[in-house]
Amino acid sequence: MSLSKPQSKLTVITGPSGVGKGSLVRKLLESHTDLWLSVSATTREPRPGEIDGQHYFFLDKDDFIKLIEHGGLLEWAKFAGNYYGTLRKPVEEKLVEHRYVLLEIELEGARQIRKSFPDAFQIFLAPPNSIELERRIRGRGTNSEEDINNRLKRAKDELAAKDEFDAIVINDDLDAAANELEELMGLLA
Ligand code: 5GP
């Protein structure tokens, strides 16, 4: 496993829908108060329990397009029929303050960040196998069959791109994966 760029202040975590990025990131944030997670903008509908400004900034399509046009996003992508993007201003502010910044985003966004922030540390979170991934995507119970199929198709493309990343972490056991991430990001020092 490569240990390149652990000193970088900007870390990107990418991996297919359902792989457990959210749970892993929450676990990291609990034990590392110096970490800051970017809250993305999206046009998708909130899931039950999701709070505007906390899980995402939920925008309508027109407002999202305006953000793109005004250069308000560091990166953005369309995923399973909706737009997702990282707000530029808060991320740049945290980096100026030398905070550790975490982006939890899909593949197209990670590729854009690789161009604009070549020093960012890019981690790919992979499932133990594709059967388990499908079980996790379906197990959420909040996605339509069409949405599930879109996410499964996209998962194949994302998995095929895992070697583009600085490191690959397999999320079989959450604690073990969190530990590996902490080590890769240099958070255990
Ligand atoms: P979900 O709808 O399951 O919350 O997210 C769908 C996908 O969009 C996930 O892979 C998630 O990581 C990704 N995503 C969330 N926020 C962003 C963002 O700001 N930019 C990009 N490119 N992808 C995002």
Radius of gyration over alpha carbons?
Answer: 16 Å
Mean pLDDT: 92
Which ranges are low-confidence, i.e. pLDDT below 50, for 5 or more consecutive residues? none
H/E element string? Answer: EHEEEHEEHEHEHHEH
Distance between the termini: 18 Å
Q: List ligands, each type once.
A: guanosine-5'-monophosphate
Tally of individual domains = 1
Strand order of the largest sheet: 2-7-1-8-9
Describe the overall structure.
With 189 residues, the chain is α/β, with parallel strands linked by helices. The protein has a single domain, classed as P-loop containing nucleotide triphosphate hydrolases (Rossmann fold, 3-Layer(aba) Sandwich), CATH 3.40.50. Helices cover 40% and strands 21% of the residues. The chain has seven helices and nine strands; from the N terminus they run E-H-E-E-E-H-E-E-H-E-H-E-H-H-E-H. It has a five-stranded parallel beta sheet, sandwiched between helices. It has a four-stranded mixed beta sheet with strand order 4-3-6-5. A hairpin with a 2-residue loop joins strand 5 and strand 6. Helix 1 packs across helix 7. The longest helix is centred in the C-terminal third of the chain and has 16 residues. The relative contact order is 0.23. The model has no long low-confidence stretch (mean pLDDT 92). The structure holds guanosine-5'-monophosphate (5GP). Guanosine-5'-monophosphate binds next to strand 5, strand 6 and helix 4.
